Q: What sequence folds into this?
């Protein structure tokens, strides 16, 4: 894989220490073996690789990291975390960086991913679990996918898929919550 030529922006040397103490995430022990990147299934869509994200955090390149699309492309599959010989929780770091990017008001390059995350989390906060019917409805409307699918006619396939899932008992008409909603909400606050 070819490495991107990463421009240097004013470093914030204390940033890595802050993250390590804030969430007890281990970053300093990364020695750039690239096992994480070599096992990641979605590097083809990333602007910088997972090992580069870690290295940039070590170098205090906060601005560069929070603006990359990698943190939004990451599918949280945890392959990288499992493969790392130094117990660096790369998937956990990606999640942490997403939160910081939103907090800093950085423009999210992958808007549809961001919309999906927000809709998913709002649903979990509301009833403690996801209601797939509403999740897809909200996502399609907010992301504009509904209008795209109506325009190109592929909405018929979506309806047909929904109907098949419903017939097989895989899609509910009404949502079902869980008892410990408040506890789940507290975790997500
Ligand atoms: S696998 Fe671990 S040690 Fe190797 S580059 Fe990735 S984060 Fe660093
Ligand atoms: S958790 Fe993210 S960065 Fe790690 S392997 Fe999966 S998709 Fe790649």
A:
């Amino acid at each position: 894989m070819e490495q991107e030529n990463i421009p240097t922006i004013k470093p914030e040397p204390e940033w890595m220490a802050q993250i390590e103490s804030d969430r007890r995430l281990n970053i300093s022990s990364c020695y750039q073996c690239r096992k994480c990147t070599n096992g990641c299934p979605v590097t083809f869509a990333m602007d910088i690789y997972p090992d580069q994200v870690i290295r940039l955090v070590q170098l205090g390149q906060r601005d560069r990291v929070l603006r990359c699309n990698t943190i939004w492309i990451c599918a949280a599959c945890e392959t990288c975390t499992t493969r790392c010989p130094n117990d660096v929780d790369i998937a956990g770091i990606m999640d942490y960086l997403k939160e910081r990017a939103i907090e800093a008001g950085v423009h999210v390059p992958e808007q549809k991913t961001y919309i999906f995350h927000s809709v998913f989390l709002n649903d979990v906060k509301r009833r403690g679990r996801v209601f797939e019917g509403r999740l897809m409805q909200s996502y399609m409307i907010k992301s504009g996918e509904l209008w795209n699918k109506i325009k190109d006619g592929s909405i018929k396939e979506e309806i047909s898929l929904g109907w098949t899932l419903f017939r097989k008992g895989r899609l509910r008409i009404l949502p079902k919550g869980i008892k410990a909603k408040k506890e789940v909400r507290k975790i997500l606050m």
Q: What stands out?
A: Residues 39-40, 42, 50, 74-80, 90-91, 94 surround iron/sulfur cluster (ligand 2) (CB under 6 Å).
